[in-house]
Structures are given as structure tokens and as C-alpha cells.
Amino acid sequence: MTTITLPALDSDEALLATGSGMLRVPGYSLGERTIQVDEQIAIELVVAARSAAESAYAPFSRFNVGAAVMMEDDPEERIFCGSNVENSSYGGTVCAERTAIFNASGQQLRRIRLLAVSTPATLNAPLEQRSPCGLCRQVIREFADEDTLVICDSGEDDVIGDIFDIERLLPFGFQFARE
Ligand code: THU
What are the two backbone dihedrals, phi and then psi, of residue 25, each rounded to the nearest 5 degrees? Predict the structure, then answer.
């Protein structure tokens, strides 16, 4: 177990005058925070995600993605894997991250401890080409709490991956106000 510090993120709210009223740029403030990472589990999940990518069904994009997740509420600490499953009707495609999460949810597990995603073809590309899409970020949020961590596999030597908590992965993610 290693203690790491996620840096603070800060931007002020701004009000912009237009001819017909103000537009607001919302401010965003995240304090620096210290988290515990089990680096053995992190590596295990990245390796599992890389290997899950081999099972992708991606005849259209030819872009394989793998994901692996461990759930906080799983006493057995199982690893649930998923890969992208494409469809002739493109909108039917499901990403690797959602496949893995839905797999875990099917076992009534609802809290993500750590999720790893791997895009073997773009491991050395900018983060935008190897991190979860917006839809998956929203689905991750549904099963996330402040301790949830997401790691994007990286091809760099000596770098396990890029790590996020949910607020850093999806600022202003939608939340339905439940009773
Ligand atoms: N894909 C994922 O599996 N996860 C993401 O977060 C981004 C995109 C898949 C969907 C599609 O099969 C292929 O990558 C190209 O977009």
C-alpha cells in the first residue's frame, strides 16, 4: 500500500457580459487529497485490462479496449473484466469499461474500488486516446464514491498509468437527486 497525494485543482467562477445577459463560467475547486493505493492490485488490474483487450469484438474500428474492475463491496476481491463489443448498428456498441462494470453489477456489486482501462494500440498516445469516453465516465460515476480510482494504462517505462479520482475524471458529472 502506497500513500499518494492528488494535487489541488482550482479555477475561479467568471461572469461574462453579453448583450442579453451574463454567461457564467462555473468555478471549480478540488483540494489536494491524500489517498492510499494498493499498487499490487493496480498492476494486477492493468495487466488484466490489457489481456481483456484481446477479447474485444471490434470488426469496425479495429480498436481493441480492455477494462478490469475490483469492487469495494466485494469481499472476495474478484476482478471483473470487459472488452468493447461493437455492432453493425454502430449505436449498439458497448465500451470495455461499461462491459466490465455491468459484469460486476450483475453480481449485485455497486461500488468501484479501482478500474483499469487499457488501449494496447495507443498506449503511447495522449491521454485522450486511451482514457474512458464521456459516456463511460458517467457510468463510472454511478458506481463511484470519493475513494474510487481509475487508472489509464500507459506505455511509458516505469509508469503504471494515469490515475484519477471521480471528480478529476468527470467534473460536473450529472447526478440525479434521489430521495
Ligand atoms: N471504446 C471503449 O471501449 N472505451 C472507451 O472509453 C472509448 C472507446 C471503444 C468503442 C469502440 O468499439 C472503439 O473503442 C472505437 O471507438
Answer: -100, 110
